[in-house]
Design brief:
CATH class of the largest domain: Alpha Beta
Strand order of the largest sheet: 4-3-2-5-6
Largest sheet: 5 strands, mixed
CATH architecture of the largest domain: 2-Layer Sandwich
Helix content: 40-55%
Distance between the termini: 6 Å
CATH topology of the largest domain: Nucleotidyltransferase, domain 5
Number of helices: 13
Number of domains: 2
Strand content: 5-15%
Structural class: alpha/beta
Number of strands: 7
Length: about 325
């Protein structure tokens, strides 16, 4: 995000309209085709459908409710250029049809909103959480003794300065944190390099230290697990005892904050039933989180400079 010496343009103080504008701009840069195929009816563009799906996650509604809400939102229809409101099954089929790699590109585009070319991140925090796929209440599960033990294990990497989610890794069953960390760290390094990676004791592994230091050229700040044996294996793990930076490691709590916001604001229950759609739904939540973060920053800056009409946003 940057400011240039021009005019402010049509930036609104309404966060929902700004969210739609940003969602359309990001989807246009994600190499998503305008129509799914040459035989498409061309009633709606894929960018319009994607913006509606993102709005659905933003408002934490289901497909039926978001369609009924958009029918009442004339300004949103105008922003999207909709001549008619799509049926809720159209949105569901669109999500089923779209590939996960396109959603990863979309996530990459949301990250670009916050950084200039070549800019490095100082500290990236890694943490994991879980999303449930059930709709029954906890009381009902407890009363019927049918509590769900399975969940979608989700690990995220967060820039502790901007509170932007840089990477996400999802698996359909509980796995150890270190297995997610290898894929997640490589993913983050490709998108945006970081000086430090901070993690909790669950990630205490010599292999993680070797990956971060030798391959990624960064430093991992991970506390060493307390064990009964006196000798600690691993060169980098022994180095952590001497060079452990407490101040840097405290920034790890920012990843827990992002996990909390992600689940409280956009829901911790996954509505999809097919695994690949469940993964897409979680990635969409992460995309919406970053878009919402950008919209909030944009509105704050706009309100600060609203008395100076010689600035506008480029994103």
């Amino acid at each position: 995000m940057c400011l240039c010496n021009k005019h402010t343009g049509n930036i609104s103080s309404n966060k929902y309209l700004n969210f739609i504008d940003t969602a359309l701009a990001v989807s246009g840069n994600s190499r998503l085709e305008i129509y799914s195929c040459k035989y498409s009816k061309r009633t709606y563009t894929q960018h319009q459908l994607l913006a509606l799906v993102l709005l659905k996650e933003y408002l934490n509604e289901d497909y039926r409710d978001i369609v009924e809400l958009v029918e009442l939102m004339d300004k949103v229809q105008t922003k999207l250029g909709l001549k008619q409101i799509p049926h809720f099954t159209t949105l569901h089929k669109f999500v089923t049809r779209i590939r996960t790699i396109l959603l990863n590109r979309l996530l990459h585009q949301t990250i670009k909103l916050f950084y200039s070319h070549g800019e490095r991140i100082e500290v990236t925090a890694v943490d994991s959480t879980g999303f449930t796929s059930g709709h029954c209440s906890y009381y009902y599960s407890l009363r019927t003794d049918k509590k769900r033990h399975s969940f979608l294990k989700t690990s995220i990497a967060v820039d502790t300065s901007n509170l932007v989610i840089i990477g996400v890794k999802v698996s359909g069953r509980p796995v150890h944190d270190t297995k997610h960390a290898v894929t997640l760290l490589k993913q983050c390094h490709r998108i945006r390099k970081s000086e430090f990676y901070v993690m909790d004791k669950a990630y205490d592994s010599e292999d993680i230290h070797k990956l971060v230091r030798d391959e990624l050229g960064s430093i991992a700040i991970i506390p060493v697990k307390d064990r009964k044996r006196k000798r600690i294996k691993g060169r980098y793990r022994r180095l952590m005892i001497e060079d452990f930076d407490v101040a840097l490691h405290r920034k790890r709590s920012m990843s827990e904050t992002s996990n909390s916001v992600l689940k409280r604001k956009y829901g911790e229950e996954i509505r999809a039933r097919i695994y690949r759609n469940q993964v897409k739904e979680i990635i969409l939540k992460v995309v919406v989180y970053n878009l919402d973060r950008f919209v909030k920053v944009k509105i704050i800056v706009y309100l600060r400079i609203s008395t100076e009409p010689n600035y506008y946003f480029i994103y």
